[in-house]
Amino acid sequence: MSFSEPKEPKKFDPNKKYFATIETSKGNIKVELFPKEAPYGVTNFIQLAEGGFYDGLTFHRVVPDFVIQGGDPDGNGTGGPGYTVRAEIGLPHQQGALAWARTGDQVNPERRSSGSQFYITLKQTDFLDGQYSVFGQTVEGFETVQKIAVGDKIKKITIETK
Predict the structure, then answer these.
(1) In a domain, 3, yes or no
(2) Which of 11, 15, 112, 124 shows the smallest number of beta carbons within 10 Å?
């Protein structure tokens, strides 16, 4: 299946909440998505999740007391779906924040987000604020986030609206 950068964000119902459940080999992680603050990032994540892009990919990077990172089809931090997503920087990196990885400012001065690689913070990381696009927050399963090791699999990501 082919994926492309969202040209317009999805039409989100302002009266509903959007959630993603990341099913992993270590358990489930439930995150609330923030379409009001990051409409393009959330649209992209939903598009990839519903299209099965993440199914079977691994967490390729784990830095203790910092982040877990996944969503790279190459499994080494260099891959993606072939596009990047506009920056939507503004939300803080609280413990359990879901955000887009990206390449450095030298090659990416617009701070565009990776098309598919995301990370979840293991603790509050204020020094990342103002630099990366946070688009969700862990609401259940943080103990699973803490158990993730390099190579653990993302079985599937499902989207739910309440």
Answers:
(1) no
(2) 15
